[in-house]
Amino acid sequence: MIYYKLYKNNNSKSAQYGKWYARAVSMQTLNTADLAEHMANHNSPYSEGVIHGVLTDMLKCIKELVLDGKSVKLDDLAIFSVGIRTTPSDSPSEFTVSSNVTGMKLRARATGNLSTTNLKLDAQLREHGTYDVEKE
After folding, report:
1. Alpha helices of the chain — where are they, by DSSP H?
2. Where are the beta strands (DSSP E) in the chain?
3. Span 73-103, pLDDT tens digits
4. How far is 38 from 24, CA to CA, in rounded Å?
5. How many Å is the Cα radius of gyration of the chain?
6. d(CA 94, CA 92)
7. Cα within 13 Å of Cα(116), Cβ side
8. Cβ(80)–Cβ(66) under 8 Å?
């Protein structure tokens, strides 16, 4: 179940100022140990500890590989890669890493069963909680 709350666009410079939108609400954040426990409870022949160890090693390896310029695809989950944030330069010869690269980011593009198309087909939505909504 995907829960959502409504929010109002309060950006007076926006053409959509005053309009209402839905935003997904996360009910809980699970860490690697929580995921390992969840997986072990699914009739797995592997213990929570073994699963946690494999997941921890996987995360370290994904980081190592993406920092080596590779993309890592976990089927039916995402393709992980590194992106960079830059500012423009007037010409290629004026571009320098120290002046124009402002940051790095981890990119994760959904794939397979978690692609946007499949999420739309499988998801169920429900409004979460109460909040003040203007009556108009």
Report:
1. 32-40, 48-66, 97-100, 116-122
2. 2-8, 20-25, 72-74, 78-86, 101-110, 125-127
3. 999 999 999 999 999 999 999 999 999 999 9
4. 23
5. 21
6. 5
7. 2
8. yes
Question: The whole model's pTM is what?
Answer: 0.75
**CA distances (Å), origin 53, targets 58, 65, 116:** 9, 18, 30
CA 82 → CA 56, 86, 99, distances in Å?
19, 13, 19
Tens digit of each residue's pLDDT (9 = 90 or more) over 68-81: 999 999 999 999 99
- In the numeric block, which tokens belong to residue 34? 């929580």
Q: Token pair of 12, please?
A: 């007076």
